[in-house]
Every structure is written in structure tokens, then in C-alpha cells.
Amino acid sequence: MQIGRSERMLFFSHISSPRQRGNALKLSNFTDFLAICAAAFDYEQECLDALFRDRPRVLESLVAGRVFYKDETPVGAGIAIQTGNAVTLDWIGTHPLHRGEGLALRCHLCCDVYSRCARPIVLSSTLAGKPVYEKAGFTSCGDVRLHRIPTGI
User: I need a labelling partner for 103 at 20 to 30 A (CA). Which of 66, 74, 77, 84 fits?
Assistant: First the structure.
């Protein structure tokens, strides 16, 4: 049974200067990162705590991570992970109250990754987010389908 679908997208081109840098992801703002993930993706806090249990190890494995603030309130976040010769952008999310403000297009996370000469940059986008990433220069290269496996198999 299929339970979800996302677009796999690639980025090769030059990145223009971002208009919003955000703050580098650190232990001191990791809770803000998790709050954005909970709100943006509708995840339970216990699930996120389990996924990101060893925060220092998570941080040392990242190519880059950013938390974006508006009036000192966390509104967006994302991380980048090395995957072979490419870098995968993951957990790119915007708080639902701040969607449509162009935060994803102004994200400095891509510039962090691109400046380290990672090509290509890869991400999986929701169908709703696909036009935003296409506007930023990403191109679709397939999709990812999530399926539920029945228990007892």
C-alpha cells in the first residue's frame, strides 16, 4: 500500500547570493531545529528525539545545517548530508505559519553546500514544494514512493 510520494530533484547550476543566511545548526539551537521539523512535517516529538538522539554525532556528520529565524522565532531549517559524491539536502522545512514567504528560495544552506564543491545537490521534495525548488534551479529526476508493509510478513 503506497502511503506517500516525493520528487527526487537535482541541482547542478550556479547559486545566486542568498538573501537570508540563517544560523549554523549547533547544540545550542538544535531544539529549534527539531521544533521546525515537528511543525513542518507533523512529526511527534518522541519520534524526532529518537531519530536525533545523539545530537553531537549528528552535527559532526553534517556538511551543513541551518536554522532560520524571524523576529527570534524559528521559522525554517535544513541539513545537508554527504551521500557518495553528492550532497543530500534533508529535513528542509518551513513552519506552516510562514510558508509562502520565500524562505526556501532564500536559504543559505545550498550555498554552504555548493561552496564546498559538492555536485550534484540532491533532495526529495513534497509535490507542493516541487515548484519552489524548480524556481531555485533544481530539476526533477524521478520520484520516491513510500509504502507500508503489512504486519506479520
Answer: 84
Q: Residue 22: exposed, middle, or buried by beta-carbon count in 10 A (0-12, 13-18, 19+)? A: buried
What's at 117, amino acid-wise?
C
In contact, 14 and 110? CB cutoff 8 Å: no
Write the DSSP string, 2-67.
Answer: EEEEEEEEEE-SPPPPPSB--EE--GGGHHHHHHHHHHHHT--HHHHHHHTSSHHHHHHHEEEEEE
Percent of the chain as helix, strand, coil, to the nearest 5: 30, 35, 35
The residue count of the chain comes to 153
- Taking the C-alpha atoms of residue 49 and residue 37, their distance in angstroms, rounded to an integer, is 11
pTM score, two decimals? 0.78
Helix (H, G, I), strand (E, B) or coil at 78: strand
Q: Is the pLDDT of residue 59 over 90?
A: yes
Alpha-carbon span 142 to 148, nearest angstrom? 20
Q: 4: which 3 cell numbers?
A: 506517500
H or E segment and range at residue 111: helix 109-115
